[in-house]
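Hey, resending since the last one bounced:
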Amino acid sequence: MASMNCGSDSPWTARQNKKFEVALAVFSQETPGKWQKVAEFVGGKSEEEVKRHYELLVKDVWDIERGHLPLPKYKKASYGSSDAAEA
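The structure tokens again:
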């Protein structure tokens, strides 16, 4: 089933990434319509975009585990930021 592309491959915000992480924890592989539900939860992204985002995440994890990519260097959490508060 094709879904509307409401995000048109726009960059992912920190808030959308956090919501994506939460959605992956909430919706299991067995959840019917998982990717559509993840897209709705994230907001502003199509089903195809969240699937592609997941595939890229999996590829990055594999590459990191095999030593092909360095571990990311994260900034310290900014607890006062609006993105963190809204996720």
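The chain has a mean pLDDT of 83.

Sorry for the duplicate.
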